[in-house]
Amino acid sequence: MHGAMTAPCFRPPSCATVASLPPQSLPQFSRRRRDVAFFAVLGTIGGCYVLLMVLLLVANAAYTAPDHFIEVLNKPEIRYALKLTLVSCTIAAVFSLWIGTALGYLLSRFRFRGKWIVDTLVDVPIVLPPLVLGLSLLILFHLPIGGHRLEDLIQEGGRWVQDRLPSWAPDALRTAQIRITYGVPAVILAQFSVACAFAIRTMRVTFDQINPRAEQVARTLGCSRGQAFTRITLPQASRGMLSAFTVAWARSLGEFGPILVFAGATRMRTEVLSTTVFLELSVGNLEASVAVSLLMVAMAFLVLGVLRLVGGELGR
Q1: How many whole angstroms separate alpha carbon 180 and alpha carbon 218?
Q2: Which of 85-89, 104-108, 230-234 has the least mean pLDDT?
Q3: Which one of 108, 148, 250, 301 is at 20 to 30 Å from 311 when CA atoms are compared?
């Protein structure tokens, strides 16, 4: 019949090679052989990097004798650096988790003007060279504001608080020297500036994976937005919060550039494990620097192992 619609002619896709055929058209033995070859290629490519990491660890372990490792850890400056590292990394990770939870939730759930600017600024510490970030922090606290540096304004504010402390306050708190640059607070701030960016990214991904429907239902039942967040969303984000804290802690552990520029590497004052490696290398004590490096590797393995154990990822 003239003008009648004709059904389109179906043409199966041409197969130039046997590999392009559907799996059912291939013999089972041939498919298995191709699968083995596929995994062999992937294993070889990925195994090169894994092998490199293993060789690096083995080389460090073989270079340092156990007796020398214990001797290095018994040095007072190394023990001080270890203590300061544990304290500063924990404080920086806690602050990073607070900021990361708040900002990650805002970036995940809401649209607002300038969101892309905030999203870009969060990634700046990740892509910037560490030395540039440390230099920027140093310039910030020496920037004149109303004729006074920010560092001086903070010190004046601290002295004002110390003068108004109650009589039962400890004397150490009254006489404490309030200093940011080239002090312990500078170490924590330098670690926080980089680690917080990773915590924000982790928490944003966490909130993206949580269905907002339960939160919306809670609001229809009379909960405020804050109550719905704390009672519904936050408990579901517990694993993500643990991941964010662990990532921030591990990133703080390996921070070096901003600490060196902004806080310095003064023995028994602002020395952490990462700067200890630099100080030992600068005096030619290679064995001590390798021993401290092994200690940092062990700490990183412990933190990441706890993360995978609590997160239920071991054995996968």
Answers
A1: 44
A2: 230-234
A3: 108
DSSP 9: P
Q: Which of these, 143, 134, 251, 130, lies nearest to 186 by C-alpha position?
A: 134
Tokens 């970030």 sit on residue: 133
Q: Are 199 and 248 in contact (CB under 8 A)?
A: yes
CATH code, domain with 126: 1.10.3720.10
Q: Per the structure, how many domains does the chain have?
A: 1
Reply yes or no on whether the pLDDT at 272 is more than 90. Answer: yes
pTM score, whole prediction: 0.81
pLDDT of 247 higher than 70: yes
Residue 13 falls inside a structural domain:
no
Q: Is 177 helix (H, G, I), strand (E, B) or coil?
A: coil
* Any domain includes 163: no
DSSP assignment of 83-124, as one string? Answer: HHHHHHHHHHHHHHHHHHHHHHHHHHH---TTHHHHHHHHHH
